[in-house]
């Protein structure tokens, strides 16, 4: 049941509310009018929990859509009725709930707070009990981030950090603070949706998006390691930059993330960024993108007319998951669309 007097249609007239998307349509795992079946079907994503339906059950229709990227998973949940979810403390992952419609009330250590579309998002940290009371119109974009992946990324981003438990400061985050998380979650969901039909999304792209999701969460939210992650770092030595440059130059497809490069160079991500700026006057991410764009151009120019190569094949090989953006950046760099370069290579202009 919702808490009387707590909620006053907070999403109504809110100009910051995200446009309600139809997310992960190809990843629908269940649609049912049975609360018991819904709780059982959702358990692999949210873990075992108790689902209680309010007095009016006429509109109840649970729907769950999930896509798993390894360290990160994204889901879209709705119930069509007033429900409450109770779950015991869980240590394997961090959960983030972002309403794209409606609102819910989260109870954390006895304190109730409203979480509504365009205004806030709910955070259920490792070791926290979960209690969420949903409005009938609530639709929740849900993220699940593996705890070990969070810890591993902290060690990579800040090697000087200790081994304290990872705790997040607040159970409710303003939407403005969490916009980077919402954007990364939408990108993850959109990439899964876009490439589902063809089944051609390479695992390395999913892995990179998952890494991006983990890093975005750690850098956007306050937690016990925030100070270590934001503390001023010294640029790494030129030799470490050379290690990273050599790894990128030797790639035959998009393999390394900036986090991988920092790990291989035995420095923090921040130190590597500062080292790249000092030595090459670019960020590691920009260097990756420029180098891979040049290699994509090389592959398009050298394409065999008879091997069936497409622009999408080349873009995905070099880590450009969004082919439209790849085409725009390619045109900015080379003055023509990638399809034109491919046609010239095949002698069909």
From TrEMBL:
Keywords: DNA-binding, Transcription, Transcription regulation. Residues 242-344 form the HTH araC/xylS-type domain. One of its GO terms (molecular function) is DNA-binding transcription factor activity. This is AraC-like DNA-binding protein. It comes from Amycolatopsis endophytica.
């Amino acid at each position: 049941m919702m808490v009387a007097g707590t909620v006053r249609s907070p999403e109504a007239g809110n100009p910051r509310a995200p446009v309600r998307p139809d997310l992960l349509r190809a990843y629908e795992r269940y649609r049912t009018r049975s609360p018991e079946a819904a709780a059982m079907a959702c358990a692999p994503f949210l873990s075992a929990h108790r689902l209680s339906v309010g007095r009016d059950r006429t509109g109840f229709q649970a729907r769950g859509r999930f896509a798993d990227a390894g360290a990160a998973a994204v889901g879209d949940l709705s119930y069509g009725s007033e429900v409450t979810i109770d779950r015991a403390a869980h240590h394997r992952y961090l959960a983030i709930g972002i309403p794209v419609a409606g609102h819910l009330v989260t109870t954390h250590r006895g304190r109730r707070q409203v979480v509504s579309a365009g205004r806030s998002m709910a955070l259920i940290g490792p070791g926290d009990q979960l209690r969420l009371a949903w409005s009938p119109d609530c639709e929740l974009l849900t993220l699940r981030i593996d705890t070990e992946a969070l810890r591993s990324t902290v060690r990579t981003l800040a090697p000087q950090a200790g081994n304290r438990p990872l705790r997040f400061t607040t159970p409710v985050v303003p939407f403005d603070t969490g916009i980077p998380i919402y954007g990364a979650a939408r990108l993850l969901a959109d990439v899964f949706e876009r490439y589902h039909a063809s089944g051609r999304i390479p695992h390395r792209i999913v892995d990179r998006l998952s890494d991006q999701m983990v890093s975005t969460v750690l850098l956007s939210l306050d937690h016990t390691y925030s100070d270590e992650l934001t503390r001023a770092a010294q640029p790494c030595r030129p030799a470490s930059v050379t290690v990273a440059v050599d790894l990128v130059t030797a790639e035959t497809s998009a393999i390394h993330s900036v986090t991988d490069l920092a790990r291989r160079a035995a420095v923090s991500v921040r130190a590597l960024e500062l080292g790249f700026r000092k030595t090459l006057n670019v960020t590691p991410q920009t260097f990756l993108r420029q180098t891979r764009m040049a290699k994509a151009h090389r592959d398009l120019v050298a394409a065999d007319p008879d091997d069936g190569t497409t622009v999408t094949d080349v873009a995905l090989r070099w880590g450009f998951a969004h082919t439209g953006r790849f085409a725009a950046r390619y045109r900015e760099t080379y003055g023509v669309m990638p399809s034109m370069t491919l046609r010239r290579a095949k002698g069909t202009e």
